[in-house]
Amino acid sequence: MNSSFDTIIIGAGSMGSSAAYFLAKAGHKVLCLDRYSSPHVFGSHSGQSRIVRKAYFEHPDYVPLLNRSYQNWRMIEEESSQQLYFETGLLYLTHSGTEIDRGVRKAAQLHSLPLLELKNSDLNDRWPQIQVPENMQILFEEEAGFAIPELTINTLIKLAEFHGAVFKMPESALKWTTSASTCTVTTNHGIYTADKLIFCSGAWSSYLLPELKIPLKVSRQTLAWFETDSSSDFSPENFPCFMIEDSEDDLFYGFPVLPQVTLGGSGGLKIAHHKVVDYVIDIQNYTPQHSISLDEESLLRSILNKYLPGANGRLLQATTCLYTNSPDGDFILDFLPEHNERIIIACGFSGHGFKFVPVMGEILCDLAVKGRTDLNIDFLSLKRFD
Ligand SMILES: Cc1cc2nc3c(=O)[nH]c(=O)nc-3n(C[C@H](O)[C@H](O)[C@H](O)COP(=O)(O)OP(=O)(O)OC[C@H]3O[C@@H](n4cnc5c(N)ncnc54)[C@H](O)[C@@H]3O)c2cc1C
Questions:
Q1: Which of 102, 155, 274, 357 stands the most exposed, by the fewest C-beta atoms within 10 Å?
Q2: Domain count, the chain
Q3: pTM score, two decimals?
C-alpha cells in the first residue's frame, strides 16, 4: 500500500474519528492511527453515555459551535441510519448565583435557548423520582440529552472507511517530524508521510507533543451504575439527564437507565462526580479500574439518597475514564507554532468535549484543507496562554 497521504490523524477516538470522516468525505486521502482498536476503554470515550447540552455555563462562545454540532449529529445520523443523540432534556439543580447557575442562564439568554425555570411542585408532578431541597434552583434545558460515545465512534469510523479513509489499529505513532515539504510519522509498524498531521491523541497529547509546553493534566474519573427500584421509572422516555450542584464546586451528573437490549450496559442509573482529584502520572502504563473505593461509593450513595432515593440500589458496575485537563478547562484547537501550519492540535478537552465531536471533525477538516474555519475558535487558540 502507498504510504503517502494528504492527512495523517493520530488518534481514532472521539475527535480523530470525526476528523477522518469529514476529511474522507471531502475527498482527501486520510490515514488514521490508533494505539488501541478504537473505540476502547483506555482513553476518554468509554462509559456508555455523554451529556449533550447547549446552555454552556463554561463559556457562551461554545454555543455557536454546539449549534453546528447539533446540525452535524443529524447529518451523521441520517447518513448512517443510526440514532446517536437521544433528547431527554437536562435538569440542572443549582444554588442561586453560583457559576453554573449564572452561566447556564447567561448562555441561554445570549443565544435565545429554551430554558425553563421550574418550581418544586412542577418537579413533583413531572418527575416524582427526584426530590430537591426547597432552597435549590431548578432549571430545565429541553434541547439536551445524551450521546453514546462508543456507538458514535464506531459509526464515524464506518462512514469514514466508506468514504475511503484508511484506519490502522492497533498501531502506535512513536515519532513524528516535519520538513518544508512533508510530515513523517513513524509507528511500530511503518513509516508514513502526509502534507498535514492532526493530533487527536487525547490523554497522550503531552507525551507526543512535548513542544506544546502547555501543561495538560490527565485525571482518572470514576463512573458507577446503580440499580433502580422497580416502582420508579428511570427510562429515557420518562426521566432526563441531570446535573446536581450539591454545594458550590461540587457537581454530580447522571443519566436515565439506558435500554440494555439496544444500548447494552448494566441496566442501571449512571452517576458520577465531576471533580478532578486523582491524577495519572504515567499515561503509558495506565489501565482502567473496574471498581470503586468504599469512600467514592458512599459519596455517590449519599447524593442518590438525598435526590434520587429510588436509584440507590445495588452497585451494578463501576469503571474509570480519563479527563485531559487544560490549564483553564477550555479546549486547545490550533496549529502548532513553527511548523508552517502543517501540524494541527485538538486536545485538552477537559471532561466536556464529547458533545462537540460532530463539529470538531468539520473544523479539523477545514483547518487541514483550507487553513481556516468560518466558525469562531479564537477563544480556543494557543495565544490565550501567551
Ligand atoms: C468520565 C467522563 C465523563 C465525560 N462526560 C462527558 C459528558 O457528559 N459530555 C461531554 O461532552 N463530554 C464528556 N466527557 C469528555 C469527552 O468524553 C472527552 O472530552 C472526549 O472523549 C475527548 O476526546 P479525544 O479525542 O481527545 O480523546 P479519546 O477519545 O481518548 O481519543 C484519543 C485517542 O488517541 C489515541 N492515541 C493516543 N496516543 C496515540 C499514539 N501514540 N498513536 C496512535 N493513537 C494514539 C488513543 O488510543 C485514543 O483512542 C467525559 C469524559 C470522561 C472521561
A1: 102
A2: 1
A3: 0.98
> Would you say residue 17 lies in a domain?
yes
pLDDT digits (tens, 9 = 90+) for 38-52: 999 999 999 999 999
- Cα–Cα distance between 141 and 104 in angstroms, integer? 9
Cβ(220)–Cβ(320) below 8 Å: yes
- Domain at 177, CATH number: 3.50.50.60
Closest residue by Cα to atom 37, ligand 1, is 201
322 CB near ligand 1 (under 6 Å) = yes
Tens of pLDDT along 4-22? 999 999 999 999 999 999 9
Q: Is 254's C-beta closer than 6 angstroms to any atom of ligand 1?
A: no
* Whether the Cβ atoms of residue 326 and residue 332 lie closer than 8 Å to each other: yes
CA distance between the termini of the chain: 43
Site to substitute for ligand 1 among 38, 44, 84, 286, most atoms within 8 A of C-beta:
44
112 lies in some domain = no
Ligand 1 center–CA 3 separation, angstroms: 27
- Does 81 fall in a domain? no
Task: Establish whether residue 200 lines the binding site of ligand 1, counting it when its CB lies within 6 angstroms of any ligand atom.
Answer: yes
From the CA of 323, how far away is ligand 1's center (Å)?
7
Among protein residues, the one with the nearest Cα to ligand 1's atom 51 is 351
Could you tell me if residue 121 is inside a domain?
Answer: no
3-state class (DSSP) for residue 19: helix
Q: Ligand 1: distance of its center to the CA of 202 in Å?
A: 5
- State how far the alpha carbon of 229 is from the alpha carbons of 226, 244, 257, 305, in Å: 10, 20, 11, 12
Q: Which amino acid is at 118?
A: L
**Which domain, by its residues, includes 178?**
4-45+150-213+328-385
